[in-house]
């Protein structure tokens, strides 16, 4: 059913060319050509929309009479994702655990909020295999920061400085 000695892909293009011939009653703006263009536009728009990054903020609320726990997504920390589990007591932030996931491991940062400073415990884990069943602790750091994110008492060069992103994503007082 080919046209002359043409291959299958060339045959499709040849048949489209014949659809545009005036001899068989079709012009370039035929019904078949319009359908092909509609499908082309539909799939182009679908591909464009699906490639956009529409992330909604995820918040999970767990509450009782005086304590409230909310889980927040934190953007711009890792391509694998980051979340903060925050405990509020009587509407004020008391503690938080942040999980930052990476391709080769994860970092877990615990914040304990006091009136003057924040106690920080930072633990970095390294995945030993791709099944994520074996995890080694790479390092553990303990330090204090003030509410602007600067270290108090000691100066560290290798701590994970995410406090600015944390402050953008997590409210310190619930309203």
Q: Ends: how far apart?
A: 73 Å
Proportion of helical residues:
10-25%
Number of helices: 3
Number of strands: 8
Structural class: alpha+beta
Strand content: 35-45%
The secondary-structure element order is HHEEEEEEEEH
Radius of gyration: 29 Å
- The average pLDDT is 77
Basic shape: elongated
Main sheet summary: 8 strands, antiparallel
Low-confidence stretches: none
**Order of strands in the sheet with most strands:** 1-2-3-4-5-6-7-8
Descriptive overview:
The protein is an alpha+beta fold. The chain is built from three helices and eight strands. Strands 1-2-3-4-5-6-7-8 form an eight-stranded antiparallel β-sheet, with no helix packed on it. The protein is elongated, with a radius of gyration of 29 Å. The N and C termini lie far apart (73 Å). The mean pLDDT is 77.
Quick take:
The chain has 175 residues and is of the alpha+beta class.
Describe how the helices and strands are arranged.
Layout (H helix, E strand, L loop, with lengths): L7 H12 L11 H21 L7 E5 L3 E7 L8 E8 L2 E10 L3 E9 L4 E10 L7 E11 L5 E2 L10 H7 L6
Antiparallel strand pairs: 1-2, 2-3, 3-4, 4-5, 5-6, 6-7, 7-8
